[in-house]
Amino acid sequence: xxxxxxxxxxxxxxxxxxxxxxxxxxxxxxxxxxxxxxxxxxxxxxxxxxxxxxxxxxxxxxxxxxxxxxxxxxxxxxxxxxxxxxxxxxxxxxxxxxxxxxxxxxxxxxxxxxxxxxxxxxxxxxxxxxxxxxxxxxxxxxxxxxxxxxxxxxxxxxxxxxxxxxxxxxxxxxxxxxxxxxxxxxxxxxxxxxxxxxxxxxxxxxxxxxxxxxxxxxxxxxxxxxxxxxxxxxxxxxxxxxxxxxxxxxxxxxxxxxxxxxxxxxxxxxxxxxxxxxxxxxxxxxxxxxxxxxxxxxxxxxxxxxxxx
Length: 309
Hints:
By secondary structure, the chain is an alpha/beta fold. It has helices at about 30-35, 35-45, 50-75, 95-110, 120-125, 135-145, 165-180, 195-200, 205-210, 220-235, 240-255, 265-285, 290-295, 300, 305-309, and strands at about 5, 20, 25, 85-90, 115-120, 150, 185-190, 210-215, 240, 295. It contains 15 helices and ten strands. Helix 2 (about 35-45) packs antiparallel against helix 4 and helix 6 runs parallel beside helix 7.
């Protein structure tokens, strides 16, 4: 898998806290606005439907970092906080999106130099032969320095059933860097909750270095319908009343099928629906107006094999 790197917030200057020169007091609310953390959190609210517990935890971390910054300016903190995190939950629950916003928050408060996100999986870190893993892992870490390294399905790094597996070598390098260079790199481990728990039990070094654990719940049915509507609106489409009713039934049926992936499944459903809409309009062999071009009907939703099965 190709390493995906997303740059965020690199042009944003790190603000100096607003303070009262007479008594050294720092206005935390002013710092909150000066660093534009409020804007980042607003973007998070707009980007993700639901997930209230997750958004609450991100706000708590942002508040903690603001206060820690003020404490350090007053000489009350001896060393920077440990910021490595674990995001647990099923696919399609917004873990990568939240990681992007977290990278921006860390940058705006001065905890990372660049604020970029490097997203990887086992294949980007672990080699297939002796001497291959260390260079691969170190190259990824080099790219991530000054930002956030997001390791998806991190538990695949550890394969105890294979004595010749090189994942342990990558783990040892990661643990060393997480401890010794935590002032220049934040690592976020992500994956299914139960598998991550097993991974931490087998690798206590990771558990001791992870400060913030955030669980991402599955979306509710109504939220998934709203996600589909939001995806459609962003592309200039809309669902008619029949399509909305069909979507609600689709969500219920799709959730029972294998490989359900929350918002990702809704993205796939929308993409297939607009393909069917395009074919319907083309085969009608008649002029189309603005409304026809943007409207997805129940027929496009019910053509899914979810209903036929």
